[in-house]
Amino acid sequence: MADTALQVGIIVGYMLVALAIGVVAYRLTERTAEDYYLASRTLGTVVLLFTTFATLLSAFTFFAGPNISYGAGPEWILVMGLMDGVIFGILWYVLGYKQWLVGKANGYLTLGEMLGDRFGSLRLRLLVAGVSIFWLFPYVMLQQQGAGTAIEALTGGAVPYWAGAGGITLFMIGYVALSGMRGVAWTDTLQGAFMLVIVWAAFAWVASAVGGVGAATATLGDVDGNFLALGGGTYTPEYVLSTAISIAFGVTMFPQVNQRFFVAESKAVIKRTLPLWPVLVVLLFVPAFMMGSWARGLGVQVGANENVLPLLLAEYTPAWFAALVIAGAMAAMMSSSDSMLLSGSSYFTRDIYRPLVAEATEEREAFLGRVGVAVFATLAFVASLFQPASLLQIGDTAFGGFAQLALPVGVALYWADTTRWGMYVGIGGSQLLYLLSVFTDVVPGTVLGGWSFSVAGMVIGLVLTVSVSLVTSHCLGEDASVYATGAD
């Protein structure tokens, strides 16, 4: 009972701190869409780094990553901690820096707005917004579902699932609608720093309890199978590369991450942030995922619906410390959801409402952005009550879905001869084929001896974008070299 009260107290304390930050941010926020969604492009190095960090890694670090390491071995550190950290860092420069330059010069708030203006195409703008919202919606729902389940377990059923998920949803609506990007980024900075400190503290505590890092790692040699074999078991070269590529490219196109490419204060901020990103990722993933592997070697038994890290901490750390880590994971879950809600709202208001409503104004758009947060969160909450298998599957495959956008976007940013029809076919074709691979047997889920179709779909999208652009540019005379405005 005392542990439960402590966990609930920590969650409530975090919410109060976040709300206080939101109030301060609201007082500094102008009543414009640019300030609400992008904090007027004023984020510095530390805040930009940590808001991206907390938005991406939060609950995954505490739950999913250690679970994977527990089941398949510590090579997951190679997939996520090293490869994805480096790949995303490179993409941040190759795509993110170029996007920042274009966005700052033209005042863009979303990816759809940038591409729609680039090709003078309302249809393309709506296509990009539709694809992004389709893959983002189940992710918001999954965060609410996770929060509701965790609170129900935390209180021993005293707070039912619907009440926990509903309470978290109401809080996030109020907080995000109030504070916008500025408040979200400030809170994420505190949350990211907290995650680093608490994960390393847990790592040191468990290591000390079992006789040191060497003793804990030595137990992994006793695990049956290919637990420590490089490239063995689950971790075939094709699986490792497919997973790392899909996640890194998908993360780059996640709306809540992609919009952060627009918010840096200056070139210097971006250039300082890029080399720090892989370091920060490794500092977080190595201890978290190693603890998941240690748990396997130490004989911690994990049930089908249980998470390994709470069980490991419960066995080797004091109850109050385990409570602190798990309650921190709950707060981290909210740090992801708030950014998703803000991004989902911006794609709706900026890419659907603004181009379709002639009398749209900055003030009205900012107001509707707050309304959009409430609508988006409420719809996701209602969906979470039913826990539909189809939405769960969409959420599980969203990285690959977002990854299909990355190469056509890269072509559009760097190749002046890209055409709107190249973008239509490249994005639409790869999305269609990827959906068929996920939900049907028409397109195989893996190809060429184990490569994920998400990677194959990316290559197909690239080929379609380039080839159709060449045909339409030379045969139809489509002018693709200037930024234009207006509809098709």
From TrEMBL:
GO terms for molecular function: symporter activity. Signal peptide: none annotated. The keyword Membrane applies. Keywords: Cell membrane, Ion transport, Membrane, Sodium, Sodium transport, Symport, Transmembrane, Transmembrane helix, Transport. One of its GO terms (cellular component) is plasma membrane. It is found in: Cell membrane. It comes from the Archaea. InterPro entries: Na/Glc_symporter_sf, Na/solute_symporter, Sodium:Solute_Symporter. GO terms for biological process: sodium ion transport. It is a multi-pass membrane protein. The chain crosses the membrane at residues 6-26, 38-64, 76-95, 124-141, 161-181, 193-219, 239-255, 276-296, 316-334, 367-386, 398-416, 421-439, 451-471. Belongs to the sodium:solute symporter (SSF) (TC 2.A.21) family. This is Sodium:solute symporter family protein. It comes from Halosimplex rubrum.
